Amino acid sequence: MKVHLVAICGTGMGSLAGLMQAAGHDVSGSDKAFYPPMSDSLRAWGIPTMQGFSEEHIGADLNLVIVGNACHSDNPEARAALEAGIEIKSFPQTLSELFITGRRSLVVAGTHGKTTTSALLSFLLSEAGRDPSFLVGGVLENYGRSFGLGGGEEFIVEGDEYDSAFFDKRPKFFHYRPEIAVLTSVEFDHADIYVDMDAYRAAFRGFVRLLPRTGLLVACDDDPEVRALIAETECEVVRYGLGEGKGFRAREISTTSGGTTFTLEITGAGKTRLETPLCGEHNVANTLAVLAVAARLGLPPVQAGPLLTGFRGVARRMQVRGTRAGVTVIDDFAHHPTEVSKTVRAARERYPAADLVAVFEPRTNTSRRAFFQKRYPESFDGADRVIVVPPYNVEQIATDERFDSQALVEDLRLRGLRADCLPDAAAVVCDLAASAPPGAVILVMSNGAFDDIHERLLASLGAREEGSHG
């Protein structure tokens, strides 16, 4: 089948492109911009791509056009496909119909942690020899890709609550027909899609109701919203968390130079000391979810535990991009205030003696809005310095709805933090290349390319290093 993906550089769309190519389809795609890691992946896979959207990209020989949810109804390629009578589908519909049908669907959903959790589950089942298929929202460092087409029974998918396409406003995870689902957390997000918390909550209520009576819900009952949603399903529920409760619990959590160790307590099944290369208590919780699913599939913690240590993480999730002039640059996708808080805390735990500089670009449709304006200041506690830039494409947001980066800086200063608002990535690079001392850790948080700030910063630091040796 000859397939074209419109907005191919999105994490999900790019992964689907790779998956379809692996299945033997002739794949091409277009997007208005290309940036790592997906741009690098598409190039490595040999998938032809075109810059910008044009009706000329829609050939008469196409069998299917997949339209990403970033596209509006006036997209020239979507319009051209419709006018030519070419079949159009959304990303989740295509994934469900072509790949999930006939397999056991394992869906990881929740506001936070779903990428790392689904990636870790994919890695664990792969290393255990189950040969699963998977598609997650980040590139697994172990495999250099965000998807896998296996011969096993399971298909693992990250269940996103964002809408499917301009012609299908249902959440993506409604398409995936879960048999086993993980629910990590439910906290308001996607303010451009959901009008309020009630609407957001309703999406997850509908999701858990999709589970069949013979299914399984693995639920983090540390989260009060998740606890409430447990009552919405008729299937078996396995609880997990760091607080008191039944199910899979973590105790005696310790940060090490190589990650985190903890004691796993399973109700009625004793204790096991385990190690994960991931840092942060939130990733311990994510690991518990994976262990609970694996146990349901016949892989008990005594077998699964040793496999966890081989996981190398996910690109853009606390990913060390490099060290130059003694300065370490970390790339992370955090954007919601809860995620920012957990990421800063994890970085502090991993580098307790470092001068920690947190750089934040408000880029998502929610973070560019003022909805969480008062939540963000406390999220940066633990950093030694914070640098914020103005919201990405802020002119797209109504003036009275815009996030105010300078106001955040002023609030951070009131909390005793060194904080600055700089105009763009170039200014951040110029500042930090000169000011970051040896031993510093720069944590860059953005869900987009951020003008390739990581490589530009490493290059400038490298030039500083060479200059000092000269």
Walk me through the structure.
This protein folds into 3 domains: 2-90, NAD(P)-binding Rossmann-like Domain (Rossmann fold), CATH 3.40.50.720; 102-308, Mur-like, catalytic domain (UDP-N-acetylmuramoyl-L-alanine:D-glutamate ligase, 3-Layer(aba) Sandwich), CATH 3.40.1190; 319-469, Protein-Tyrosine Phosphatase, Chain A (Alpha-Beta Complex), CATH 3.90.190.20. The protein is built from 14 helices and 23 strands. It has helices at 11-22, 38-45, 76-84, 91-100, 114-127, 197-208, 224-230, 281-296, 301-308, 337-350, 376-379, 405-414, 425-435, 453-469, and strands at 2-6, 26-31, 49-51, 64-67, 87-90, 104-109, 133-140, 145-148, 154-159, 163-165, 168-171, 180-183, 216-220, 236-241, 248-256, 259-266, 270-276, 319-324, 327-332, 356-360, 385-388, 418-421, 441-445. The longest helix has 17 residues, at 453-469. The chain is globular, with a radius of gyration of 22 Å. The termini are far apart. The mean pLDDT is 94.
Quick structural summary:
The chain has 470 residues and is α/β, with parallel strands linked by helices. It has helices at 11-22, 38-45, 76-84, 91-100, 114-127, 197-208, 224-230, 281-296, 301-308, 337-350, 376-379, 405-414, 425-435, 453-469; strands spanning 2-6, 26-31, 49-51, 64-67, 87-90, 104-109, 133-140, 145-148, 154-159, 163-165, 168-171, 180-183, 216-220, 236-241, 248-256, 259-266, 270-276, 319-324, 327-332, 356-360, 385-388, 418-421, 441-445. The strands form four sheets. It has a ten-stranded mixed beta sheet, with helices on both faces. The chain has a six-stranded mixed beta sheet with strand order 18-19-23-20-21-22, with helices on both faces.
